[in-house]
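re: the backbone from monday

yeah here it is again, tokenized this time
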């Protein structure tokens, strides 16, 4: 059974940083796309970033480019999201996701989801 478990969320002041982690079990995703999504209160879930293979192949939402960095450690079957220069509008529940196949440019088709971790950025 595939499980994705996020950690690292919390409360931070605007301008601060957080690092989210997502540990996968039950399947190796080293050749598949893994991504991060977020959902703010009253809004739909939105794509944040995705990665495949290694750090050379990544995709980011325009709203986080230059501030967030996605990376992965295939040996640990873990994906990370380093979030810098956080803004109050980054406040959301952040979800880790994985899909079969390497397409990081399509935000659809993610088969596996974590339970989410809350990130709150105070102004």
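seq for it, each position gets an aa:
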């Amino acid at each position: 059974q595939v499980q994705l478990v996020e950690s690292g969320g919390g409360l931070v002041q605007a301008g601060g940083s957080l690092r989210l982690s997502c540990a996968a079990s039950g399947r190796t995703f080293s050749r598949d796309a893994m991504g991060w999504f977020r959902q703010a209160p009253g809004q739909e879930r939105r794509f944040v970033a995705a990665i495949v293979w290694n750090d050379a192949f990544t995709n980011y939402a325009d709203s986080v480019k230059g501030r967030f960095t996605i990376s992965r450690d295939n040996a640990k079957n873990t994906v990370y999201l380093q979030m810098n220069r956080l803004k109050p509008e980054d406040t959301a529940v952040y979800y880790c996701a994985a899909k079969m196949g390497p397409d990081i440019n399509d935000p659809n088709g993610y088969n596996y989801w974590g339970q989410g971790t809350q990130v709150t950025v105070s102004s």
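The two ends are 40 Å apart (CA to CA). The first strand starts at residue 3 and ends at 7.
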